[in-house]
Amino acid sequence: MEPILQPKPQITSSNSPEYRHRLAEISSRACFSDPLNMLFQRDKIGSSTQVTLENIYKSTLLRIETKVRLGSSIVEADKFAAIACWEPPGATCRSHNIEELKELVKERPIYAAFIQDIEAAKNKYLGEGQKCWQLSLMARDPLRTSKGAVRAIIELFVERSKEERVPIWCVAGNERARDVYAYFGFKVVKVIYSGEEKVRTWCMVCNWPIE
Question: Model pTM?
Answer without folding.
Answer: 0.90
